[in-house]
C-alpha cells in the first residue's frame, strides 16, 4: 500500500510540475498586484488569485496549442474555460479541506524524500541540488514554501484518493454480461441487390418531379451561414515580375546547392559484415546453393534488414568495395569485400544514375526562389505602412488604388477551401471577423499580407432551384432507386421465406461465420452488424445499403469464443469497469466534500484576473 501511495504521489508531482511549466510558458513568474488575494474560500482552504490566473492561463494555452491560433479572454469566456479552471481549483480546495479535517499528512521526512527524488531538482551528479531546486521554482513563479505546501497537499490527496478508490470492483455478473454482449458472434448469409439488377431501371426525372422533390426536401438543399467578404491581398507571386535578380546572386546560390545539382552515380545497398573472410565466404556459399536467402543470413547475425541498409551510396562511400558493387546487377549479392567493419557481403537493391544539372537548367528555379524571398521581404517591409493607412481610415478600395494590393470578394463558409480560403490564416480571420470590425493587416503562410471587411452575413437559406437542379435530380434518382431496390428485395425476401435457397435468387451472396458486433464488412452501412444482431435465427431482413439492398438471413447465434484473446478482452473490460466505478465513487466523494465546504466566490477578484488579459 505504501509503495502504491508513493508511486501515485510521484505521478501527482509530475502532473503538478507539468501544469505549472505549461501554464507559465513564455510568461515567467506572474502575479497580480492589489489588495485582493483570493478568488474563492472553500472551507478552511482558499484559492489564490495567482493559482486561478495560472490555471486559466494553462487552459487557454492548451486550446491555442490545438488550434494554432491566439485566444482572447472573451473567447475563453465564451468557451467556458474560465469556469472550467475555477471549478477544478475549487474541487481541489474542497479535497484539501477534507484532508485537513481528517488530519492526513505525509510528514516532513516523506516530503523531503519526494523532493530529492525529482530529477529536475538534481545536479549533474544525480543528487539533490538546492540551487537547481530554487532555480526551477523561480521559473514557475513559486517559492520553496509554496511548492512544498502544494506537494504536501498533493501527496495527502493521493492517500485519500487511494483509500476511496482502492479495492473497488464492479459486480462480476455485470462484467460477464457485458463481455458476452460485446463478444457474442453471429453467422449469417447476405445477398446483394444492386441497381444494375433492377427489373425496371429508374428513368430520368421530369421537371415536375424535380420541382416536387425540391419542395418536399428543401432542408437537403440549404446553403450554410455565409459571410460576404471583401479583401485586399498582396502575395509574393504578384511581385515576381517586378523583381530583378542579378546573375552573380544566382551563381552563388547555384554553387551553394552543389550537392543538389551534382549527384554522382549511386547504388542502393545493404551491407552484412562478418568477423572473418572465411565466415563471409561460407555465408555466400549458402546463398549460391540455395541453402539460405539474404534475409535469413541477416537474421542469423541477430540483425534486422534496417540494421544493414546503407541507403544510397557513392563510390567514395564504399571505398575498396566500390568497383565490385558498381559492376554488379540489381539483386546481386557480392563479396566478401572489405568495409570499415571487416569483410562483408553487399546486396544491390537499386541503381541511381549520375545527375548533373547545369546552371542554365537550374536558373529558372533559382531565380524564382530568390525572387520569392525578396518579394516576401518587400511585403513584410510594406505591412506596417499599409496598416497605418487602414488605421487612418483608408478603405480597402482606396488601399488598392494607393498600393500594389489587389481587391477580391468571396462568399465564405466554414466549408470554403478554394483560392485564398485555402490558407489557415485567412480562414481564421474570416471566422473571427464581425460586423463593424475595421480591416487590419494579417499575414498568410506563404508571406502574403491581406486585410478583409465583412459586408454582410447571410443566414442559412434554401439554395435556388436553378443552382441546385443537378443535385436535386441526382438526389431524386437515388431516392427512387432506393425505393425500387427495397420493393424488389421484398419480393426476393418472400421467395427466400418459402424455399430458403439463396442460389435460386440469381443474386451474388456470401456466407459469414462467427462475426462479432465490431466486425467490419466492406460495402455495408455502418449499422449493418447492429441490425444483424437484432435478428433471430432463421429471420430474414432487407437492410438498405449505399446504392444497394442487402438481404440478410441469420443462420446461427454463437457465444463468445474461448480463446486467449477473448479472455484478455474480458479481463480488459472488467478492469475498465472497475476503474470507471472507482472514479465515479471518487467524483461523488469530491462533490460531497465540496458541498460540505460551502465555497464562497469573490467576483471582484475573478473580474480582476480576467481584466489582466
Report what the structure shows:
The chain is an alpha+beta fold and 613 residues long. Helix 1 (2-23) packs across helix 7 (144-165), helix 4 packs across helix 23 and helix 8 (172-183) packs across helix 23 (564-597). The chain folds into four domains: 38-166 and 599-612, Porin chaperone SurA, peptide-binding domain (Triger factor/SurA peptide-binding fold), CATH 1.10.4030; 185-216 and 469-558; 226-244 and 368-459; 265-353, Chitinase A, domain 3, CATH 3.10.50.40. It starts with a helix and ends with a helix. The strands form six sheets. It has a four-stranded antiparallel β-sheet. A four-stranded antiparallel β-sheet has the order 12-5-14-13, sandwiched between helices. A four-stranded antiparallel β-sheet has the order 8-7-10-9. Mean pLDDT is 85; it is low at 1-33. The chain has 24 helices and 19 strands. The protein is extended. Its main location: membrane. GO terms for molecular function: peptidyl-prolyl cis-trans isomerase activity. InterPro entries: PPIase_dom_sf, PPIase_PpiC, PpiD_chaperone, Trigger_fact/SurA_dom_sf. This is Parvulin-like PPIase. The chain crosses the membrane at residues 12-32.
